[in-house]
């Protein structure tokens, strides 16, 4: 009988912990996310969609901008998963590499800009909870994580673009 009581308490305890976490998100990060999303949408409206499009096309001409600044802007302004729609500004051969870069950034950006990928927020809070438990700032970790993420997306973009060009060439010579 004691076993069943402990099993029932453990079972309901999982849901109580989940509820406490949800309340923490509602009173903590969700207001920040809502304000950030509102700001980003207002900024795009003030700048003008045509100007944003022109700027995006300019960013795709240079390989370093294409796989650093361009994915960063896409993830920051459109968030995950809408950021992948920025691929429309690229040639077909560059789209796989852009997607690889953007999808690789949606986690490292979360520490600094939680609105960019709210779905990954639980991972970031899990990682950073050790620091907050110790009373330490999470910002140094967030900045380092972001910098490493930017280096990784550049490398992934360049490598994936190179592989795509090779595969594209091999595919067209066989056809």
From TrEMBL:
Record's GO cellular component terms: membrane
InterPro entries assigned: PTS_IID_sorb
UniProt keyword terms in alphabetical order: Membrane, Transmembrane, Transmembrane helix
Keyword Transmembrane: yes
Classification via Pfam families: EII-GUT (PF03608)
Biological-process GO terms, alphabetical: phosphoenolpyruvate-dependent sugar phosphotransferase system
Residues that span the membrane, as ranges: 22-44, 64-87, 141-159
Keyword Cell membrane: no
NCBIfam families: EII-GUT (TIGR00821)
Protein name: PTS sorbitol transporter subunit IIC
Organism ancestry: Bacteria, Bacillati, Bacillota, Bacilli, Lactobacillales
